[in-house]
Design a protein that fits this description.
162 residues; alpha/beta; 21% strand
């Protein structure tokens, strides 16, 4: 898997913690929601970067009070047909004020990247031989949009009527 962050190939500095493992002593961590809930106080006191990976059946409201403590929230797409993470991304950005990295993980297809970016994702784990080219093709595929979204692009109707 390649990680594209803000349009560029990036290294992933977060270490996933297996479900049955103890809390690692140092380093940026990527946790499940139950791990975050169990170690929340200790991790906040530690002050190191922490990310949480939300499964598609875990609502982002569970993180609403903690968005200022998280530097990464990874939203899972278990299948390209499961679109809950699109809604979760908008909730995190618009309702819960999350400003950190919002990463799409799981079954992320290049032709979905534009739509993911429009709702607030700024990082994507994709399986590709040329991830940067696939990202650029996907993002540059449409010069006009029809609906308003989190990216604040002006929709075609508003452009047409001034």
């Amino acid at each position: 898997m390649a990680l594209i962050r803000n349009g560029f190939l990036a290294a992933d500095g977060y270490s996933p913690v297996p479900a049955d493992a103890p809390l690692p002593a140092t380093g940026p961590l990527l946790l499940t929601l139950p791990q975050w809930q169990a170690w929340r106080t200790e991790l906040i006191e530690r002050g190191t970067p922490v990310g949480v990976r939300l499964a598609s059946d875990e609502h982002p409201e569970a993180l609403a009070a903690d968005t200022n403590h998280l530097s990464l929230i990874a939203l899972e797409f278990p299948s390209f047909r499961d679109g809950r993470a699109y809604s979760y991304a908008r909730l995190l950005r618009d309702r819960f004020g999350y400003t950190g990295e919002l990463r799409a993980v799981g079954d992320v297809l290049p032709d979905q990247l534009l739509y993911m970016q429009r709702v607030g994702f700024d990082a994507f784990e994709i399986d590709s031989n040329d991830p940067v080219a696939d990202y650029e093709d996907a993002i540059g595929g449409f010069s006009v949009v029809y609906q308003p979204s989190g990216d604040e692009r002006v929709p075609a109707l508003r452009l047409r009527h001034g």
